[in-house]
Design brief:
single chain; alpha/beta; seven-stranded mixed sheet; 21 helices; elongated; Integrator complex subunit 9; RibonucZ/Hydroxyglut_hydro; Integrator_9su; nucleus
Length: about 675
Amino acid sequence: MPSISVVSFSPHERFHLLLCELDDTMFIVDCGWPLNTLYSDQADDTGKLRTAKSDTRLDPRDALSTINWARVDFILLSNYEQMTLLPYITEYTEFSGPVYATEPAKAYGRCVLEEGLGAALQGSDAMQGGSSSMASTSNVSHSSWSRRANGLDKWQAQVPYTQRDIVAAMEKITDVRHNEIISPVPFVQVYTRSSGYSIGSANWTVEYKNHRTAFISTSTFATCLHPQEWDPKVLSDAQAIVFCDAVDPASYEDDEVGTARANAQVLQRINQLCSTAISTMKQRGRVLLIGEPYGVTQDIFQLIAEHTQSLNLPLPQFIFISPVAERTLQYGNIMGEWLCESKQALLYLPEYPFADKDLRQKNHLHFVRSLADLATKNIPQGNWFVVAPPHDTATIDYFARQWKQDAQRCSSAEMASGTGMAKFAVLIHDDDVARSQSLVNRLSVSSEITFVPVSRRFTYHNIEQSLASATHAQHVLMPSSVYARLAASASKYEFKMFEFSHLQATTVDLSADRHLPLNIQKEMTRQIKSSGKQCAVVTGRLSLAAGKIRLEYPEGQAQVQASAADTSANSIKNTHSAVPVSTLPRDLSVWTPERLADELNEIGINASVVVGIPNGTAAASSEPQLQGTDRPVKLIKIVVPGGSATIHMHGGWSVECTSVSTQWTVMDSLRRVLKCT
């Protein structure tokens, strides 16, 4: 019986790094790690740059050193947020297997890694009092990190790769499309379905020996944003489900959020941010939006551009301060097939899904790599809409301080002439509450902040709702924080629930049991009654376990007690270990081996009646060899592609199969025969 073991190596609930072992196959799902522990460039209350924490528990190399990377067969990546440690793994460990991700996840992931590394270099410049370049750092050897002891060296030791490593890691990623089946190793197949979180974000399914395990990474039910919508089939097809991600219960309101509610909540918060921005620009003010140049920022930017033009307001100058912003906005128009349905429909019209192309043609969209580069750009003064990433605290501090001084110096005459800028707004939408709250605390002294976190990720209510479509699930694994919320209601589910936590291995045996509904119809009951036999309508399910097919009855159904003497050839015995059921006498005399074989042949199954010893070897000979005192009986021999099966109809029906594929074929055939009679 196959089993799967899951160990979480990331200390943060938002990022995943799962080591999974499926029998002899070992693989990694996601390579996420908290960015602030690698690229820590936060300043303290005095504005002085802090060094990264030296706590060894935050150093990913300490955790990853416990993994035997030579045994890891492949890596699956779900979205651009979960790639933080990929360059280190591919370049500085013994891992040599394939890496799989969608094309957009790969493209955006490279931007995230390069932007993070650039932030680290800016931080080192501030600490060193000088300047450095990405090119110079790309030649630093990995071994030199371990020899650094203090100051700048200790801070840089938190960045375990270089720009050259990022490029090399990206070249090792194999692009995949949703629903494209890949076989990374023999007997294992993997494929993805959309998670709805970002462009190209995916939930992976790993299939092994007819067992499908779904890994639900960062996902959302919201369909009002630009990425392709959530695909629920990832749950309905899986026997085992691993929820990798969920919002921290302490960081969201405790209310039930379904698909409609998720859309309403996301739209309400985005509209609140847009309303503040439009109101500011109506008063000839300026806006600073703190957010990464991808994800929700693209939706907010799009809505503000549309509302500005629809209200006939002066079109502001949109300025993105980021070394990767130009690429990330272009990807939205290039990768149209990964967008939501409404955006995909625009691909067939003479217009782009996003507004950046039109704004660039009007010279109202500008990209600068850093604050220093802004001085070299000839951007018209007036209404500015500036987008800066959360980690670029130097840029954020500059605009907040400078705009406040401009507002204080603005005279009434300048306001009347339209040249004064007395109002400005700072908007934050990041759903990383800890990081956003740190920014709010820094800026609240110098400016007014509108902090509206746009949270899209699954809550435990969403997980509970999604489990309703997990019709084939037998095992569900989830983070400890979510398990604590759902454990009380675990009894209402047919599957078993498990929890996993940081550095704690959770192993689940993937049961070979399969179930199909069974209903012996009233017509069959009437036929049995006409023969004078005792009978009753039977409703239950066929259970396939260890090569045996058994009829199980729902809990609470009336059971007829029978003594051992009542057990006869016309009785069905339930031996399901989870719900003990007494022997139930059922008259099945209407079913003879010849009739069952004929019925199976009519539906295309190669079935024949043979003579043999129960639980022994069947033979086609009319004079079988007796073994001890066992009496030969008639059996049904079934031969199908991939194996064979023997049906015993004496002393209780049972089926012995030679392979898993044969089990499914015989099980489905019996269901069809019993349903039609």
